[in-house]
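Folds abound. Consider this:
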Amino acid sequence: MIRAYKFRLRPTARQAQALTEMLRDHRSLYNGALQERRDAYRHPSRTHIKYGDHSAQLKEIRTFDPEHQGHWSFSSQQATLRRLDKAFQAFFRRVRKGKKAGYPRFRGAGHFDTVVFPKDGDGCRWDSTPHDRQTRVRLQGVGHVRVHQHRKVKGRVKTVSVKREGKRWYAVLACDEVPTEPLDATGNIVGIDMGTVHFFTDSNGKHAENPRFLQATANALADAQRHLDSFPKRTRQRSKKHRAAARKVAKLHAKVRRQRLDHHHKATNALIRDNDVIVHERLNIADMTRAPKPKPDPADEGAFLPNKAAAKAGLNRSILDAGWGQFLRILANKAESAGRLLIPVDARNTSRTCPTCGHVSKENRVTQAKFACVSCGFFANADHVGARNIVNRAGLALREAA
């Protein structure tokens, strides 16, 4: 099994400066390689440069600029070039499929925050000891950086990534051969219906409250964003006050992310601990949160009909604030580790189907919270009905998978 571990780094002031310089130089390498690809394609010969060409030039680049490029790990620089190559591969794949292309962009100082070391022992070394949680990671050009290791690392460390989030630094370890830790059987099976009023409702009728972390921070975030936008464009990126205002906005967003992640871990731990089988809806969140298309007015050229974009924007914000995608990913990882069975099922009409007589109709859903079957008169909470229908579809999903 593959698992990732994320630990807080505690660098000294000198090491933090060295980490910042490492990010800067890797970003310079990324942008330089991107510029070379652009120039080569614009040349009359239409030359295509790939990762192998850039990797072959890397030794010469390090010799030409030993103070910056020659100071860091060769393999980490190769990983940065692979990152650019993957961006171009994704770009061409979207072009072939007729989607919005999204040409790879140059990375600014605030949009390049990760350096990857592809192999433990090549430019980095994870110096973990079994009896001491305050361990260290050795990084070429930086030194031995203290790590707050809050949990034991299991399996074999394959790659080490150094990531900056605001003023914080983290080490992300990707490990394989991680052993599973099966939990004792409980004999319980549960279905969960994701929502925005309640975070989810299970098939037993229990509601998990939605903390709405982004909504709780909305006023402070709006004030900080207005203060940031108040700076004239000519002073941006050069003013100390502007940089401080930008850091405040980023700090608020980071706090919301940490709160949401902590909530998801606690909610998934409870589900995994209490149930052997967990059934959930198979959700396409990207489509669910897509903005509605404009509706041209046939009677008035250049005008548009109402398309409920404002109401849809509020719903999209609530869905993204709940973080369903992250929650389901964490749930899948924990289920695999604990030996639990996780079953995704078709989400269509789960809140419109009567769990007693099977009648399907949109009139069954009276309001957001009320379900009343027009055929048999069954009455219940709509989210509870959805969760019951979800768990009832588990058998069909298992038969289709077999």
